[in-house]
Amino acid sequence: METPLKNWLIGEFQRTGHRHESMSEASACDTCGTNFKRVERIYNERVKKNPELVKRPEPKRELSAKGAEMYNAMEFRLKNDPMYKWHLKTLAQGTASEKKKEWERWESGYYKKHNDFNLGKWR
Ligand SMILES: [Zn+2]
Fold first, then answer.
1. How far is the CA of 40 from the centre of ligand 1 (A)?
2. Which residue in 60, 65, 94, 118 is a FRET match for 83, CA 20 to 30 A apart?
3. From the CA of 76, how far away is ligand 1's center (Å)?
4. Measured in angstroms, how far is the CA atom of residue 23 from the centroid of ligand 1?
5. Where are the domains of the chain?
6. How far, in Å, from the CA of 41 to the mean position of ligand 1?
7. Binning pLDDT at 50, 70 and 90, where does residue 116 land?
């Protein structure tokens, strides 16, 4: 949420000058309940007109150590293991029956048996 909108909201909620223990208590109060409904209506209108107001910034994610390790391992395999690359490509781009067949092949241990990615080739 953008800061001006947030500040406006806080200001509007403080407008009644009441202090309530909880939101449910506030909504039960005639003054605050009415105020809340009014603020909510204006808020919804403003957001509807300009959805950017409540757009969340994309969180910047750092890879965890474990994530970085997995990423590196995958990158290495994609560069050096044509069989793995072929496997992923089939899963991503194959037809439904090709995908099914590929999964069955994977599950059967075919790749463990036939692949040696350090060699970078089929064996
Ligand atoms: Zn009140």
1. 16
2. 65
3. 62
4. 10
5. 3-54, 65-122
6. 18
7. low
